[in-house]
């Protein structure tokens, strides 16, 4: 008997009821799925022919957590903590079979089951802290019971997942299989029919050494002292409560802490950053075929950073300079960066030598004849590169400025490194979708996050510059450097703080006033970039600042900040400050329009139409 009810499919294999979660893309535990699981467990309990339940997932992964898009909305029953308690309370053995990434609520669901098996390439983790929250479906109470405080706190405070083998060694899993997970899990479930397994809440393997438990809690609490974000300290409190309180009270304690944290502005900012990063990955050119890139060419001095990244990513690189002194200088720059990486243990001498093997230094653009993508550091070298590079090769300008006209305009794109982590792809009106797809594939190969902009691009730099201009103006108006620096540090923007100022961070009214000035200038510049179509959506601007220039992730970004505060307030402030310094605060018409409609920058993004993700 196989039946599909929305995100859950049911299959019967003898006495085993198999519940197959099927809610793409990542089987997030949204309301419909929770309700279907609840009903299925209730039905299994009542069905005398069911001897055991196996929960597994279809698609690319076991549930990767609660549905983050539901946060901030009124909770709908059954909530995840209750569903987990319901599964755990089932008198018939429940087995979870894990593949892909069992994260957050997904792992908590598996921990509510009475046994867990995973595929060897699965990853298990509790990343909630990266969203400014904590494992709120029993994780802070069940995990320490199995693996102790030290390891539980490591998982919850770093948010980093662990591979299945490590999870098994820790005690989170009961088995790992290289392959054939479905069959192995079914066999295991058949073996559990008629058996009564110990619920995780009643297990104590991780709590046998009470003193070690308290030592781990104390050490973690000390490490969290003074932390900017509140989630870490609340996680420590909950893990401590798991030892001190009976499970029911521990669960209530966790739930209260979760409710507090999910409502914090930091958690809202981190959720925004999560979705902004995903949205930025949606390129209109998503469906275009990337051209194969076997060799990268680099022409011009400023290209060496990208050349180094390419070498370290295993790409063969041809490095071209117009003359010997410049070529030697570029090679010395690469050699120096590699030496630093070796000294700091980020690169082994063997890997360094292998990188050199892949590098071909050359004088003259003719050496680019076999390069599939050429990084052109200076627009003045474009014609030469276009002449030498083979037909179909992508010509990526790494310098600032608009893309020049060229007979090869369809192969030309801007590719700028922002803060060493982000590649901003500036797309021209004639840039072919395949050229965009190719440049993006190369940027990802170099380990870079990608952002699409329309030429001339420069999103992150322009917005940060507007912030810097506001700081300069405030200082020129006699604002105390220490106060300005304190406010910026308190907000998480030390990179804009005046050099000379004291270290103190500052909060309170004056800090709020200073931050409002700086962030309003940034949001205003962002609005101008949206008006000009340089940025596709407001969240792209936030992503660019967060991923590229160290804007504090928990603040979401300048556009998100403005939306949270309200565009009516932004309009009011710009109307006043625009008189004082129009070059910084003269209001972008988009703000007046959106404020008049009671709208948000986020709404603007929707109107613009934003392409899909690549398949
Ligand atoms: N909720 C809602 N949507 C999600 C989601 C989630 N948990 N995870 C991913 N998506 C969407 C994402 O927005 C994108 O959508 C698509 O899935 C593919 O994601 C109670 C409270 C699993 C490692 O923090 O880390 O459980 O853009 O592009 O690169 O304790 O997604 O296609 O429309 O990232 O292959 C805890 C978050 C939640 C994990 C896959 N879980 N997800 O990476 O794909 S809090 C997490 C990820 C929680 C409980 C608490 C990654 C991934 P779209 P993607 P990917």
How do the helices and strands line up, and which of them pair or pack?
Elements: E1 3-5, E2 8-13, E3 16-21, H1 31-46, E4 52-57, H2 80-89, E5 94-98, E6 101-103, H3 105-112, E7 115-119, E8 123-125, H4 139-158, E9 162-163, H5 164-170, E10 175-177, H6 181-192, H7 210-224, H8 231-244, H9 247-262, H10 265-280, E11 282-283, E12 296-299, H11 304-312, E13 317-321, H12 324-343, H13 349-357, E14 359-363, E15 373-376, H14 382-388, E16 394-397, E17 412-418, E18 422-427, H15 433-445, E19 449-454, H16 459-476, H17 481-491, H18 509-531, H19 538-549, H20 558-565, H21 567-580, H22 582-585, H23 589-596, H24 601-608, E20 612-613
Parallel strand pairs: 3-4, 4-5, 5-7, 6-8, 7-10, 12-13, 12-15, 13-14, 15-16, 16-17, 18-19
Antiparallel strand pairs: 1-2, 2-3, 8-9, 11-20, 17-18
Helix pairs in contact: 1-2, 2-3, 4-7, 4-8, 7-8, 8-9, 10-19, 11-12, 16-18, 16-19, 17-18, 18-20, 18-21, 21-23
The structure holds (2S,3S)-3-hydroxy-2-methylbutanoyl-COA (T1G).
Task: Report on the architecture of this protein.
The structure is a single chain. The strands form four sheets. Strands 14-13-12-15-16-17-18-19 form an eight-stranded mixed beta sheet, with helices on both faces. The protein is globular. It is of the alpha/beta class and about 625 residues long. The protein has 24 helices and 20 strands. Helix content is about 50%, strand content about 15%. Strand 4, helix 2 and strand 5 form a beta-alpha-beta unit. The C terminus is likely disordered. Bound molecules: (2S,3S)-3-hydroxy-2-methylbutanoyl-COA. The site of (2S,3S)-3-hydroxy-2-methylbutanoyl-COA has 26 residues, from strand 6, helix 3 and helix 10. The site of (2S,3S)-3-hydroxy-2-methylbutanoyl-COA (T1G) has 26 residues, from strand 6, helix 3 and helix 10.
